[in-house]
UniProtKB/TrEMBL annotation:
Superkingdom per UniProt: Bacteria
Organism for this UniProt entry: Winogradskyella litoriviva
SUPFAM superfamilies documented for this protein: P-loop containing nucleoside triphosphate hydrolases
Cofactor: Mg(2+)
Protein function: Catalyzes the transfer of a dimethylallyl group onto the adenine at position 37 in tRNAs that read codons beginning with uridine, leading to the formation of N6-(dimethylallyl)adenosine (i(6)A).
The protein's Enzyme Commission number: 2.5.1.75
Taxonomic lineage of the native organism: Bacteria, Pseudomonadati, Bacteroidota, Flavobacteriia, Flavobacteriales
Coiled-coil features, chain-numbered ranges: none
Pfam families to which the protein is assigned, alphabetical: IPPT (PF01715)
Entry binding sites for substrate: T12, A13, I14, G15, K16, T17
Binding residues for ATP: G10, P11, T12, A13, I14, G15, K16, T17
EC class of the enzyme, as a word: transferase
Any one Gene Ontology molecular-function term assigned to this protein's record: tRNA dimethylallyltransferase activity
UniProt-recorded name of the protein: tRNA dimethylallyltransferase
Quaternary structure annotation from Swiss-Prot or TrEMBL: Monomer.
Amino acid sequence: MNKLLISIVGPTAIGKTSLSIKLAKYFNSEIISADSRQFYKEMTIGTAVPSKEELNAAPHHFIQNKSITDNFNVGDFEREAISKIKELHKKNPVVIMVGGSGLYVKAVAKGLDYFPDVDANIRLQLNKELESKGLKSLQTQLHNLDPQTYKTIAIDNPQRIIRALEICIGTGQPYSSFLTNPKKVRAFKTITIGLNAERSIIYDRINQRVDIMMANGLLDEVESLITHKQLNALNTVGYKELFNYFEGNWSLDFAISEIKKNTRRFAKRQLTWFKKEESIKWFDYETNVSEIISYINSIEE
């Protein structure tokens, strides 16, 4: 068998972890997480880190292996993940990758896009504008300069917005125009499996997951991280809403409803991102794993 990476993608709460473990058991393989929120050891409940039972069911990598204080970005992940895949392929021709962070998945499967250097003062100015006018102002700019990126980017993430804007402003071209560069050649073949469901089902699963997170102690987890709330790792759904609660800006019920709403929006953006990839083979989230295995084996024959 050729060296193979089986990548499992889809919206949050759809069942990617469960499928990855079933496939890892079938192929006697190991799992690489491409979930950019599960890297951090201080964040467990709010990032839906696999349970101890799930982690013990198959070897996992890139789960809580970093600290929120570490400077770790998608380029670092690409290098470390490719090195780990190369190592794992010496033992087994199949490696499983799972995660809903589209940029991180793409970095491993195809490599990162090249962006030209731009004047560092542009980023400084955009950060000042973020402080003085708020995120909405930057979002409006991006919508005007690059509607395509606006539709697919993590629109509530200031760092992502600023990165896209500095390329637009610094080059005079849309950020999205740099996303079509030739991809890197990998030493493995990637088969990408997508899980999906009716939107109402996805939203119900998200709402249930948030309720379970709260019951499992998410409030205490977020409270323990208040002194680090300025870190980029914590500028994420489930944490920033509860920071607003602890700061007295929102009631707890409203903060929870905002977590659910923002997670639903995040799932919609995930699907928009992944639906652009024609190579993804989509399955309903309730599809029996044997059908998915048959598809993978048919591709390899």
